[in-house]
Specification:
This protein is α+β, with helices and mostly antiparallel strands and 401 residues long. It contains ten helices and twelve strands. Strand 1 (97-102) and strand 2 (105-110) form a beta hairpin. The chain is globular, with a radius of gyration of 29 Å. It starts with 27 loop residues before the first helix and ends in an 11-residue tail after the last helix.
């Protein structure tokens, strides 16, 4: 289609198809030859792939015409580079800003941002280090654990992961009241749940806030296999007063890909959201029971192979405590061969299909032990399918599952 001299639309009117040839633009000579202009060249083989691109320029002189899609394997061009070559400047959604005070320092953040967003983007390193357990950057706020609470001047403390910033809001992140509440949340969790496989950040937060779960007494004996799954809501046995209640129970190993160690489950609901509307839309697991008897379960408490699970492993990818982990990791931990300090991570692209998911291969002793995906990757947003997460066995010539 030919264009007007302004380059803003199709040519119209008499003689629109017989405009003057544009030097250096591929196809101009051929168009002249078709119109019978004298001296028009006969079309040749044309330039090779990529040849002559440097000669193409926009009619308004903005810059060279070229590919406008970012190369996912290359470094992203900076703002100055994008402007220099005339490429698109990605502005994103344009929103108004609101003024918020973070511990006395006024900042401006986009309208609709949560308090945690403001702490991460505009806060000091100490403010950005707000503890979280049920929050993840690639998931909607769940607002369950309440360890990220801040003081916004109301009657109760607000969860920073879910509370939206308001113009003129004053946020206090390090008052005695805030620290006390965070310590109590971590302490009560640690008193009933095995927090030994949480991340280094969680371990550091527990130390910094002075968490002491042992002051609640010795732990009660673990439940028998399947005992907690048979509990009925509202039917509780009175405590003996000598031990603290726990969710300790045997590990569930009912498939060849991952295990469920619910003695480490803090009921953050991240796994149910990843299995549901945040990522997979399978809804194979959900919360069952009430109060201290609440637990994550499959429908009718069937074993995982008999459930709707598709083994994408996205629940593993978001679990903050190690309650869900791959069989490869579980076996190594049980054998005392888990070496996270020696682990290397290599980023590659999944080869099973053409979607282009980025994979992070976690390698120990020259063997792949886990596969994850970056939470900020534009294709996966941190989530994978069964092939991407567990389809690495052929790399090490392991027996098929």
């Amino acid at each position: 289609m030919t264009t007007t001299s302004s380059g803003k639309g199709p040519a119209v009117g008499p003689g629109a198809g017989s405009s003057a040839p544009v030097p250096g633009v591929d196809g101009a000579a051929e168009a002249d030859a078709g119109n019978g202009h004298a001296g028009a060249e006969t079309p040749g083989a044309g330039p090779g792939a990529g040849e002559g691109v440097e000669t193409l320029r926009r009619e308004n002189g903005a810059g060279p015409v070229g590919v406008t899609v970012a190369d996912p394997a290359g470094a992203a061009p900076g703002p100055a580079e994008r402007l220099e070559v005339g490429g698109p400047v990605m502005l994103g959604q344009i929103r108004r800003t609101v003024k918020v005070s973070l511990d006395g320092t006024e900042v401006r953040v986009p309208e609709g941002s949560t308090v945690l967003d403001a702490l991460h983007s505009e806060g000091t390193p100490e403010q950005a280090d707000t503890p979280t357990l049920c929050w993840a950057p690639n998931m909607d706020p769940i607002n369950a654990c309440r360890v990220c609470v801040v003081d916004v001047g109301g009657r109760t403390l607000a969860p920073s992961c879910a509370r939206k910033c308001e113009d003129g809001m004053e946020v206090q992140t390090d008052t005695e009241r805030v620290r006390h509440n965070r310590r109590m949340v971590l302490e009560l969790l640690a008193s009933s749940v095995d927090m030994g496989e949480t991340s280094a950040d969680v371990q550091r937060w527990m130390s910094e806030y002075g968490v002491d779960p042992e002051r609640y007494g010795p732990p009660a004996p673990p439940a028998a296999a399947g005992e907690r799954d048979r509990l009925h809501a509202g039917h509780h046995h009175p405590p003996d007063g000598a031990t603290r209640a726990t969710v300790d129970q045997p590990v569930k190993v009912d498939n060849d890909l991952y295990v469920r160690d619910y003695a480490r489950c803090i009921m953050c609901y991240k796994c149910t959201h990843a299995c549901g509307s945040d990522a997979q839309f399978t809804f194979a697991i959900a919360a069952a029971g009430r109060g201290f008897d609440a637990r994550i379960a499959t429908e009718n408490n069937v074993e995982l192979p008999d459930s709707a699970c598709v083994y994408c492993g996205n629940c593993i990818g978001v679990c903050p405590t190690g309650a869900l982990k791959s069989v490869a990791e579980y076996d190594r931990r049980e054998a005392g061969e888990w070496k996270p300090e020696e682990e290397t991570v290599t980023t590659t692209v999944c080869s099973f299909c053409g979607v282009g998911c980025n994979l992070e291969l976690h390698v120990q002793d020259n063997e792949i032990v886990n596969v994850t995906s970056p939470a900020d990757h534009s294709v996966t947003h941190g989530h994978l399918c069964i092939k991407g997460r567990f389809g690495f066995r052929h790399v090490q010539n392991l027996p098929e599952v």
